[in-house]
Amino acid sequence: MIATFGSTSSGTAIQKVTGREILDSRGNPTVEVDVVLASGAVGRAAVPSGASTGAHEAAELRDGDRKRYGGKGVLHAVANVNGEIAGRLICMSALEQEAVDAALITLDGTPNKSRLGANAILGASLAVAKAAASAVGLPLYRYLGGPSARTLPVPMCNILNGGKHAIDSTDFQEFMVMPVGASSFAEGIRWGAEVYQALKKVLHDAGYSVNVGDEGGFAPSLATNAAALEYILKAIELAGYRPGDQIAIALDPATTELYHDGAYHLEKEGRTLSSEQMVDFWADWCDQYPIVSIEDGLAEDDWAGWQALTARIGNRVQLVGDDLLVTNTERLARGIHDRAANSILIKLNQIGTLSETSAAIAMANRANWTAVVSHRSGETEDTTIADLAVAMNAGQLQALMGLSLRPRTPTMGIRWKLTLSVRSLRVDWFQLMSLANRPATGQYVKRSSNTKMG
């Protein structure tokens, strides 16, 4: 449930809703929404977009006009914000987030928000929450989470990209480091940045390009997927840290993208694996490397494979459902019942409203699952995910470590989401805080209730 403060008054009535088309970090159009209240309080939200998207995600609305942004324009979604959505929300109280989101869902009228567009609906939902927080004089994390919002997340720093996020790199999409031994969020970010810079040197010295992928991680053309782990281990040590003890590894192989014709195809290595062999593959890697978290280790509808993987290594490794669960409580309920995965990835635009996102986190918490709040590969400077991670005591925040600028292009998309998160969550906290999670090598990542603010 989302915490609320204050009482409904004319000052918190929604007076104006304005949508516009902006560019994300990949140079693709996305939706930005402003909400203005009668009091003059303003909320602004920008919507991210993914490259590898699950089939069961809420549907973003694209224009399809190939003459404009290659068909990726969002003018129709913006028109829906400025038309139907604005008409429905004006005069509603911004303090009634669940009522606002319910109105948006009903207005759309489809199971996956395809009529108005999840990008249009989410932009409005988040902008309303931000306007309400501004109206009552609270930071967004406190407005959403109330006094119980007291835990800072462990950063999951994406430092090497492959799959759909990088051309001719690894089969697997994301290789991340988690500073599990750091004493504060600020220190954890520093450790991640130092490993990132060390990896740049390690790759350069080995003769590889240090160009970056969609998510700001390096994108070398490696002969094998395991080579990525070997270079990351070297980088951790070069930066002066102990692999596993101080810095662990998290993966997002995005295997839905590798799955077709009933098998997993690792084209980089010329291998084809069955579901059972894929489970063996991950078990072997977890025996060899300090891996504490695997996201989308199996495809989005390989429920039997997920059950087998969870039974095999779920007692010592966090198994995160992204494409499998898509921040959707119906799919999450099945995952909990079937014991498929033990953690859910939280992406706001997978489900399309703040209230539904909150409900997914609450359901995971009740099942003693972890929740990982995540960015998308097409990001903006909106820092809502940082506030959400703290508001819901999620414990982990998956975000971008690298800096990906596109010189001489209109986007110049700064991808350092963790730095933006620090700014959003007020730097002075971080000297007082411990990290939320401190798993030992190979152990299941759990939230800690004693990592508090204040």
Explain how this protein is built.
- With 454 residues, the chain is of the alpha/beta class.
- It has 2 domains: 10-138, Enolase-like, domain 1 (2-Layer Sandwich); 146-431, TIM Barrel (Alpha-Beta Barrel).
- It has helices spanning 75-89, 97-108, 118-135, 140-145, 185-205, 226-238, 275-288, 303-313, 329-338, 348-351, 354-366, 384-391, 417-424; strands at residues 14-23, 29-37, 42-46, 154-161, 174-178, 248-252, 259-260, 263-266, 271-273, 291-295, 318-321, 343-346, 370-374, 395-400.
- The strands form 3 sheets. The protein has an 8-stranded mixed β-barrel with strand order 4-5-6-10-11-12-13-14, surrounded by 5 helices.
- Helix 1 (75-89) crosses helix 2, helix 1 crosses helix 3 and helix 2 runs antiparallel to helix 3.
- It is globular.
- 57% of the residues are buried.
- The model is unreliable at 403-416 and 426-454 (pLDDT under 50).
Topology as a string of helices (H) and strands (E) = EEEHHHHEEHHEEEEHEHEHEHHEHEH
Q: Work out the strand percent.
A: 15-25%
Which stretches are low in confidence, meaning pLDDT under 50 for 5 or more residues running? 403-416, 426-454
CA gyration radius, whole angstroms: 21 Å
Return the CATH architecture of the largest domain: Alpha-Beta Barrel
**CATH-defined topology of the largest domain:** TIM Barrel
Annotation, overall tally of beta strands: 14
What does the largest sheet look like?
A: 8 strands, mixed, barrel
Widest sheet: strand ordering:
4-5-6-10-11-12-13-14
What is the number of domains?
2
The backbone outline, from C-alpha atoms, is globular
- CATH level 1 class label of the largest domain: Alpha Beta
Estimate percent helicity: 25-40%
Q: What is the straight-line distance between the termini?
A: 23 Å
CATH superfamily of the largest domain, called what?
Enolase-like C-terminal domain
**Overall pLDDT confidence:** 87
Find the structural class using helix and strand composition: alpha/beta
How many alpha or pi helices?
Answer: 13
